[in-house]
From TrEMBL:
Protein name: DUF5606 domain-containing protein
Superkingdom in the source lineage: Bacteria
All residue ranges annotated as the DUF5606 domain in the record: 5-51
InterPro entries from the UniProt entry: BVU_3817-like_C_sf, BVU_3817_N_sf, DUF5606, DUF6852
UniProt region (Disordered), positions on chain: 141-204
All copies of domain DUF6852, residue ranges: 54-123
Amino acid sequence: MPYELQELAAISGMPGLYRLVRAARHGVLVESLDEKATRTLAPARNKVSLLSEISIYTQDPDETVPLTEVFERIYQKHGAASPVTSKSSEGELTDFLAGVIPDYDRDRVYLSDIKKLASWYGIVSKHRPYLEAAASETSEEALAAETAEDAPKAKAKKAPKTTEPSADEPLSTGGVITAADEAPDAEGNPEAAAPAKKSRKKAE
């Protein structure tokens, strides 16, 4: 994934974005995503919208695009510097979103949502590092190759003549390698953002 969004959130009544630190008795302790990194308490009455759980509606009612993927598309097309801001014209903003999500739902995604998207991307790309997916995959491939090389060596070792190998003795000490977890960035607009969900097709 390009940017790690799981701990980042937009909070109603509080401008900008925040990193969730920990739960508190009367709310959530958060840290502002800016140069000051100021810590404050977000009251329990304020709505906390996790960026990793926000998606953009498409014209297919069964499909949405997670914000993490939207950010990846923006990065691949424009780099870390977004070509628009929340103050850009309506035409510039709609053209910007259409450039990364051609089939976004024009009826359910409002101009205010595109402004938030542009603002959030600018904040995140400035204060969070972009994680190259290729580097992560290369590390996993190297680890898999290393494990594969170690397995024959472990198998080639001879047991002491006086000891019989047990029936459940493993053939290799190599562990199971799993893919890294992925995730899908102000007050969210419930009409324009929905929880990320897997694409699916209705049964015929």
